[in-house]
Amino acid sequence: MRREFVNVLRQPDFAAGAMEDSSFRFEERGVQEECPVSYEYIVQDDCAKIIVYPGGKPVKYLKLRFEGDLSFVNRVMGDQWERSYGNLAPLEWRSVKADRVLPWFCYLIGDGQAACYGVRTGANCFAFWQVDTHGITLFLNLMCGNAGTDLREAIVAAEVIQSISEKESTIYQSACSFASRMCEKPILPKTPVFGVNNWYWAYGNISKESVLQETEYLCEMTEGTTHRPYMIIDDGWQLNRTYGPGAYIGGPWMPNDRFPDMHKLTSSIHEKDVNTGIWFRPLLTLGRIPEEAKLAVSAGGQIMDPSHPYTLERVQKDAAAIAGMGFDLIKHDFTTIDIFGSGLFEREHGVSFCKEDRCFYDQTKTTAMIVKELYRAIQEGVGQSLVLGCNVIGHLSAGIHALQRVGDDTSGRSFEWTVRNGVNSMMRLPQNGKFFMIDPDCAAFTEKVSADRNLDFLEMCAFTGVTTLASVKPGILTSAQMERIRSIYHMADQGGCGLGIENFDKTALPECFASDDGVMRRSFNWESEYHGSRCLLSFMQ
Fold first, then answer.
1. Are the beta carbons of 439 and 405 closer than 8 angstroms?
2. Helices 262-271 and 208-221, interaxial angle, to 10°?
3. What mean pLDDT do residues 502-526 have?
4. What angle do the packed helices 367-382 and 309-324 form, to 10 degrees?
5. Cα-flanking dihedrals φ and ψ of residue 382, to 5°?
6. What is the spatial distance between Cα 103 and Cα 118, in angstroms, rounded to a whole number?
7. 252: cis peptide before it, omega within 30°?
8. What integer pLDDT is reported at residue 516 of this predicted model?
9. Is 299 in a helix, a strand, or coil?
């Protein structure tokens, strides 16, 4: 007899919550007679809305438990909070483990069946799932920085959905369909996004001359494409950039003397029928800011508080000024690290995200609400330009930004970093075109890494229809490599071939891809470069 997955579109069997003054052990038996968080779990036809009400005291957590026999489940996979970090918190299938945090959504497989549980994108809290053999738990982090949120009005904290498939073999298709249900109104680029980003060969040592040289090389690589490729200027263009230990990587966002006239530069690039892109870090700055708008002092500068009106206005103006220089794509970075004081992967348990010094100006909004307001300010600032979020929380940026860096950095120094971070991040392929266009980062072409393996990585990007971006040191490609990269960019120009991951439920490093009908197939050997996986690995060598 086939067993059934737990139904979460019903009232939970147990609820526990924590207010600002609740015991640290609020989940222990006997500590609470009833849940102190004022909430409703409103079940509708295809979802359940979790409404959280002001309760007189700042609210921190809400835990909902749904009992049921899940002893037949043998594999589980979840998402990550922001970018995936392949060597620390990879996107991968694992056995059932009761304390494993599964951010935003999870897939379960067992007894020839598959199930998906999740919350819709744009939630007003951070939400994660936990799966054990006796049921499933949904935990809502409703905090404001390192404290509870002093709610002044009711919020829809999250909308819960589920999907159950009768065939385990369809888990990839189920994941794609489920992503569409999680994000009902995605923002997507109108044309394919392909081209170059200069970080992984220049690492910030750039100038107007190097950018124009790259643009010429890009034109050679993309000759004959229908859509404009992108020339993306990464970190290194800004006025106060320093290098070495303790380097400053922030604003104010004005060009340094190696970029004497940004408007003239972008016009020169546009004349070559190439789109322009640029990087910036919105929250780190130098100079005087209102004291109440200062979140922390870090990285040689001041981190602005994203909940303060001054910060939102300034970030919007900065984004508008950068876009006004003639840039078609704005890549913003470091916001998760700056807001939380560390990468969320370092606090994988999902409860106390922020460092102790992260106390926001506006304590009436949850951290998730504050993060979304920051993303909206950037998006509104750039106008019609595309936004590529990097070090951004995908579940909160979906429906706001069109592009999302889904993995940690690839590398122009070690292809192993590209495998662990870029290839592993492709486990988020079901989100492509459903949440946003995903960006697994760049294929890097330098003297230190294999061009052929990076061409494989770039080809994988092209035929799956994700961003197809490379960092290419001008002049480095052989004639044969130039011919192949042209064919790859032409495939990207057509929007790819729609290939998905074969054996999605049996891998963490996708290497076999196929069309839905199985007619088109492509496979790679990511381990061929080092005869397996490297054991001694450094990003800098």
1. yes
2. 20
3. 93
4. 30
5. -80, -10
6. 9
7. yes
8. 85
9. coil
Extract the tokens encoding 455.
């061409």
Residue appearing with tokens 């009711």: 154
Contact call for residues 16 and 32 (beta carbons, < 8 A):
yes
Q: For 388-391, which contacts have Cβ atoms below 8 Å and span 24 or more sequence positions?
A: 388/277, 388/329, 388/330, 388/331, 388/332, 388/439, 388/467, 389/331, 389/332, 390/83, 390/279, 390/331, 390/332, 390/333, 390/334, 390/439, 391/82, 391/83, 391/333, 391/334, 391/335, 391/336, 391/337, 391/343
Q: Determine the angle formed by the axes of helices 479-493 and 451-464, rounding to 10 degrees.
A: 10
Give Cβ neighbours of residue 365 (< 8 Å, ≥ 6 apart). Answer: 144, 149, 307, 373
In whole angstroms, what is the distance from residue 101 CA to residue 79 CA?
9
369: closest CA among 314, 313, 312? 312
pLDDT of residue 346: 62
How far is residue 126's CA from residue 135's CA, in Å, rounded to a whole number? 21
The pLDDT score that the predictor gives to residue 522 is: 94
Q: For the chain, report the end-to-end CA distance as a whole number of angstroms.
A: 56
Q: Is 504 helix (H, G, I), strand (E, B) or coil?
A: helix
The rounded distance, in Å, linking the Cα atoms of 325 and 282 is 16
Residue 420 structure tokens: 């662990």
pLDDT, mean of residues 187-208? 97
Whole-Å CA distances, 218 to 32, 87, 181, 196, 376: 63, 32, 38, 7, 32
Q: Which helix (H) or strand (E) holds 405?
A: strand 403-405
CA distances from 108 to 167, 172, 343 (A): 12, 12, 27
Contact 78, 101 (CB under 8 A): yes
Under a CB-based contact definition with an 8 Å cutoff, are residues 426 and 464 in contact? yes
* Paired sense of beta strands 403-405 and 386-389, if any: parallel
**What pLDDT, in 10s, does the model give residues 368-412?**
999 999 999 999 999 999 999 999 999 999 999 999 999 999 999
What does the radius of gyration of the chain's CA atoms come to, in whole angstroms? 23
